[in-house]
Automatic annotation (TrEMBL):
Keywords of this entry: Cytoplasm, Kinase, Phosphotransferase system, Sugar transport, Transferase, Transport
Superkingdom, taxonomy of origin: Bacteria
Alphabetical list of InterPro entries matching this protein: PTS_IIB_sorbose-sp, PTS_IIB_sorbose-sp_sf
Pfam families, per the entry: PTSIIB_sorb
EC code: 2.7.1.69
Ranges of residues in domain PTS EIIB type-4: 2-160
Listed name of the protein: Sorbose-specific phosphotransferase enzyme IIB component
GO CC field: cytoplasm
Length: 160
C-alpha cells in the first residue's frame, strides 16, 4: 500500500463552492478533489454543479466515507489530493478508518438549532467540539480559515 499524498482536508458544509475550491486548490496544488460525504456520494444528481465549479484540469470524485477509507491507499503518487468533508464527524471517521489526514482547515459550518457561533463562518455544538478535540488529541493539526490568503482564526473559539 502506498501512502496517499493528501495535501489538505477541508471541512466546509457548502462542499464544492466554486471560488472556495478554486482558491484552495491553487494554494495547495491538488489535482484531485475528493468530496467525501455519504449523502452526496449516493445522489449523482448533486454532482453536476460541483463538477462545473471545480477548477479546470482537476479531477473531482464523490465518495462515501467508507469507500474513501477502503480505496485511499490505492492513490498513485501523481495524485495530489484535496479532501472536502461537510463535518468534523466525517473527518474523524476518515482518520479513525486509517486515512492519513494530518492537517485540517475549517472553513464553514452553518449555524442551526443548538449551535453557537464560534467565528463569523463557523458554528458548533457540543458534539462538534468533542470531535474537534478528539481530532486534536489524535495529532491532527487544525486551523480555521475562510480563504487561503486569510490569517487563521484561533481554534480556541471552537474548542472552548
Amino acid at each position: 500500500m502506498t501512502q496517499p499524498k493528501i495535501l489538505l482536508t477541508r471541512i466546509d458544509d457548502r462542499f464544492l463552492y466554486g471560488q472556495d475550491v478554486e482558491l484552495w486548490n491553487e494554494a495547495v496544488g491538488s489535482n484531485l478533489v475528493l468530496i467525501v460525504n455519504d449523502e452526496i456520494a449516493a445522489d449523482s444528481r448533486k454532482w453536476a454543479p460541483m463538477r462545473v465549479a471545480a477548477p479546470e484540469g482537476v479531477w473531482t470524485r464523490f465518495f462515501s466515507v467508507q469507500r474513501t477509507i477502503d480505496i485511499i491507499h490505492t492513490a498513485t503518487p501523481r495524485q495530489w489530493i484535496l479532501i472536502m468533508v461537510a463535518s468534523p464527524a466525517d473527518a474523524l471517521a476518515l482518520v479513525k478508518g486509517g486515512v492519513p489526514i494530518t492537517r485540517i482547515s475549517i472553513g464553514h459550518m452553518e449555524a442551526g438549532e443548538g449551535k453557537r457561533s464560534a467565528t463569523p463562518a463557523v458554528a458548533t455544538d457540543d458534539a462538534d467540539v468533542a470531535v474537534l478535540r478528539e481530532l486534536q488529541a489524535l495529532g491532527v493539526k487544525m486551523e480555521v480559515r475562510n480563504l487561503p490568503s486569510d490569517e487563521p482564526d484561533s481554534m480556541n473559539a471552537l474548542l472552548y
